[in-house]
Write a structure and sequence with these properties.
This protein is α/β, with parallel strands linked by helices. It contains 7 helices and 15 strands. The strands form 3 sheets. The chain has an 8-stranded mixed β-sheet with strand order 2-1-14-13-12-11-9-10, with helices on both faces. A 5-stranded mixed β-sheet has the order 5-6-3-4-7, with helices on one face.
Amino acid sequence: MDDLTLKASISLLPWRITEVRGESTKQALAPVIIEEPLEIRINDRPVAILMRTPGAEKELAVGFCLSEGLIADLADIALVHHCGQVLPTMEDSEVGLEESRNVVRITLTSPTASQDPRLDVVRLVRSGCGRTDAEELAGQLTPLDNDLRVQRKTLLKLTSTIKQEQGAYREAGGIHAAGIFTSRGQLVAIHEDVGRHNAVDKALGYCLLQGITLEDKILVSTGRASYEMVTKAVRLGLPVAASLSSPTSLAVELAAHLNCTLIGYLRGQRMRIYTHAWRLKE
């Protein structure tokens, strides 16, 4: 992959990776899906913060508020405002909060157009006035102080183990799995769930309840590696997190800050190492 001309777009961010295919290794650029928070305000009251890929912010905000019943009728909306001119590469300091591309403001036709008491509860992934970034999230977590090393060939064997243990997936599909492995590739725990985060939580919870240490383990998920996967791993001391799917931009940026090795596209004899490749040895 000779993609040294990859450019940032509204939904993609180029990221330098170490790509492994069997015994060969090379440096390359690969696109990652951008993941950012979107704060929704109704009459200047924050009601939700959604993690999303930039684009169609007005549609997302209106669809969310109406489908969740926070606004009773489309006719109750007088104005939907979003500034979508700021590119992902621009620094936050270059623009004021009122111009943030991570805030949508909905103004109702009257202050009493929606009396839903749930407006008093902010549905948040995390607060930050629409300006949450990797540094802010990392500042609330302790970077891993862990020098665990794992052989590359060990990582490359984990996909087949996961697939062998996915009983529900073989029967019906539509379900995620998450597994905890030792640094030598031995399966410690695996759980399936329709929610990728639920599967991760189940596998981690099993280890915690059984008194199994996590500082020398590997987390592998079939679901997309978003920032939640990284924060869960770091909070519990897991130094290596891998996904059979792709990571998001916030996940790789956060993993880089927190000394966590993040691997994506773990499939067969290949994988993409997005952060801290030094943990993987020949």
